[in-house]
Write a structure and sequence with these properties.
The complex is a heterodimer of chains A (376) and B (264).
Chain A: H1 2-27, H2 32-48, H3 57-82, H4 90-107, H5 112-137, H6 141-164, E1 168-169, H7 172-175, H8 180-186, E2 188-189, H9 191-199, E3 220-221, H10 222-240, H11 242-252, H12 254-259, H13 264-290, E4 293-294, H14 301-311, H15 323-342, H16 349-373
Antiparallel strand pairs in A: 1-4, 2-3
Chain B: E1 11-20, E2 23-33, E3 38-43, H1 49-56, E4 64-69, E5 72-73, H2 79-85, E6 87-90, H3 102-106, E7 113-116, E8 119-122, H4 124-137, H5 154-167, E9 172-176, H6 184-199, E10 203-208, H7 211-217, E11 220-225, E12 228-234, H8 240-247, H9 253-259
Parallel strand pairs in B: 3-10, 3-11, 6-9, 9-10
Antiparallel strand pairs in B: 1-2, 1-4, 4-5, 7-8, 11-12
The chains are: A mainly alpha (376), B alpha/beta (264).
Chain lengths: 376, 264
């Protein structure tokens, strides 16, 4: 009886609500905190560091590269956090994977492509082991991956000391010369375009020295390409596929998800593996860029990744978050870190800024999330 | 409507026993559930209701006894088998994920996909339109399919879960205390939903503590106590007082047996 009475008014009613939702939907998104933070950060540095070279080609490349580094590990940490788990071993994994590539390619003399591929396989297997232990024991992933933080870091120091009697292994750039997979991580793209832009006067060129006539920025590093590819992959996976729905479900309520037939254990283990994969991408790019692997690489990266993800609107306890938000969190992180340098601010104040941004973003995100999900 | 009692039961649980180590959770419980009927399973805490429905839905394997589903003996290896066969369970608290949208919840574990460039993508358009349609049928007006479940009331969440089970072809719908945490109005909504579902020819197994909720929609009643069937009755053959006494431990069981006409 109420249905017949409702039908005309319902359409009016929903029309009204859809309109109302139009601007709300545009505004109230999980990424809102990240968007607001990004705008605020660019406004701040636009005003304070405009003439410092932060926004010329070299400056942009500088903070883009740093942001891209954060993005690569933030994508993995974001998906894992939404699936309801943490990985504190990301930083150690970066050091460990970089060291493996160096040992395989320099000490053992393997071709670089083989060293990289074998390292990826080993790293992803360690990620799977992390996940397997968490699933099997039911222990918090916080503890399990904390153990791996120490285990992997320990090996990263022990292996080069035992094999080479030093904690840094160099000579990778020479080994990677002409290697196709090395270029995938250490190369640059669009060199022709930047050369043309330099000749056309769009970006400055070197005026003297061995590189005279070349543009100051001679291409986009593969690190940035990897960051963009991983962000797009993570975003599409999370929001546009059935597996993405399983990631949300596994982190939102694992028991309810299992009751609905979601393979929660598989989802979580895959996400641990993906996090390890992202850490290894970071390691490979870094090793190719520096030409060396050091035992202290990747220190504290796990926390930086988690901070970027949380600034981006993800819920620490899982089930809610956004890859795009995490990417914006990484961008904020990178811009602030490098921007303070450009603005000539004492570098120790970086931590103060970071703390304020973290707190502000999380408070804003909490309000947004409550609006969306009706949490109390 | 008495003809439906002559139907074959869709699921028969024959002398189900379930032991956990030395604990005997179920000591021979038999229940028959008919299509288009609401079978109420009553009992106090620890009576074995949860173990029994978990056995029915494939979570536990019975230690002894037989499950006959649509006339054939059934062995479920895990809940997925049971779901595939058409036995759906709606749990009291574990039905929905509050942080996720209604549409994502509705299709959780059964996501529709469409192919683009050879890759399977979640078909959000289809999912959203089906969700809105099914919610409208159940009398819930959503702001939109992306409204989070957390913004719905407890009764609406149960209704979403029931609508989901029905949409995915449940033949037997097990409701685990759907009304125990709800207010009066929300309870009435859920009971009305049960009635709608029953009229679609689906067998409903309704677990509850509350005799009045059971009598409001139940066609048959089975009372469990300490892992055994304490009594069974059909609609109209039992008064609320008798049912209440039976649940409380069966002090008046002897008197009840007479009034039930030897069906116990």
């Amino acid at each position: 009886m109420s249905q017949t009475a409702q039908s005309p008014s319902t359409s009016d009613d929903t029309d009204e609500r859809v309109k109302d939702l139009g601007w709300r939907r545009a505004l109230i998104r999980p990424e809102l905190g990240g968007i607001v933070g990004t705008i605020a950060v660019f406004l701040f540095f636009g005003l304070t560091a405009y003439d410092s070279g932060m926004f010329n080609a070299q400056g942009i490349l500088n903070w883009s590269t740093v942001s891209a580094q954060f993005m690569i590990i933030a994508v993995g940490a974001c998906l894992l956090m939404i699936a309801g788990e943490f990985d504190l071993s990301v930083g150690s994994m970066i050091g460990f994977a970089g060291m493996l590539i160096a040992i395989f390619s320099v000490t053992l003399g393997w071709p670089v492509w083989m060293a990289i591929l074998v390292t990826f396989v080993l790293a992803v297997l360690i990620g799977a082991l992390n996940g397997f232990i968490v699933i099997r024991t039911g222990l918090p992933s916080f503890i399990v991956t904390l153990a791996f933080l120490f285990i992997l870091r320990g090996f990263t120091i022990y292996l080069p000391q035992t094999i080479e009697r030093k904690t840094i292994i160099g000579g990778i750039r020479e080994a990677a010369e002409g290697d196709w997979l090395g270029a995938v991580f250490g190369g640059k793209i669009l060199k022709g375009m930047f050369q043309w832009m330099g000749e056309a006067g769009l970006i400055t060129t070197f005026e003297r020295g061995t590189r005279a006539g070349q543009p100051v920025v001679d291409g986009i590093p593969m690190l940035i390409v990897w960051a963009i590819v991983l962000v797009i992959f993570g975003h599409v996976l999370l929001t546009k596929t059935r597996f993405g729905n399983w990631i949300f479900a596994a982190g939102g309520d694992a028991e309810a998800a299992r009751n609905s037939g979601v393979p929660v254990n598989r989802v979580k283990i895959y996400m641990f593996m993906f996090t390890a994969f992202c850490a290894t991408v970071f390691a490979a790019c870094q090793v190719m860029e520096f030409g060396s692997a050091g035992a202290d690489r990747g220190l504290l990266k796990e926390f930086e990744a988690i901070i970027a993800v949380v600034i981006g609107g993800a819920l620490l306890t899982g089930g809610y978050g956004s890859v795009l938000g995490a990417a914006l969190g990484a961008l904020i992180f990178g811009v602030v870190q490098q921007g303070l340098f450009f603005a000539g601010v004492e570098s120790s104040l970086f931590r103060v800024f970071l703390g304020i941004i973290l707190l502000g973003a999380v408070i804003l995100n909490t309000y947004i999330r409550r609006m969306i999900t009706g949490e109390r | 409507m008495n003809t439906r009692t002559t139907h074959a039961p869709i699921i028969e649980m024959k002398n189900i026993e379930k032991h956990f180590g030395s604990v005997i959770a179920l000591a021979g419980v038999s229940v028959e559930v008919y299509p288009g009927e609401c079978h109420c399973l009553l009992g106090d805490n620890g009576a074995g209701k949860s173990t029994f429905i978990k056995t029915m839905s494939g979570v536990h394997k019975p230690t002894h006894g037989e499950i006959v589903f649509e006339g054939k003996p059934m062995h479920f290896d895990d809940p997925r088998d049971a779901i595939a066969a058409g036995i759906a369970t709606v749990h009291q608290h574990l039905a929905m994920i509050p942080l996720m949208s209604v549409s994502r919840n509705f299709f959780m574990g059964n996501e529709p996909v469409k192919k683009r460039f050879g890759i399977s993508f979640f078909d959000h358009e289809y999912a959203d339109s089906v969700t809105m349609e099914e919610m409208r049928k159940m009398g819930i007006n959503l702001r939109g399919p992306d409204q989070a479940v957390g913004t719905l009331s407890g009764g609406e969440r149960q209704t979403v879960a029931i609508a989901r089970a029905v949409h995915f072809g449940a033949k037997v719908l097990i409701l685990d205390e759907p009304t125990s945490a709800l207010g009066v109005r929300q309870t009435a909504n859920v009971l009305a939903t049960i009635d709608k579902v029953r009229k679609q020819g689906i067998a409903v197994v309704f677990i509850t503590h509350n005799v009045r909720h059971a009598l409001a929609v139940g066609d048959r009643f089975t009372v469990l106590n300490r892992g055994k069937t304490l009594g069974a009755a059909q609609r109209g053959q039992i008064t609320p007082e008798e049912l209440q006494d039976m649940m409380a431990g069966g002090q008046e069981l002897v008197a009840l047996e007479g009034s039930l006409g030897g069906t116990v």
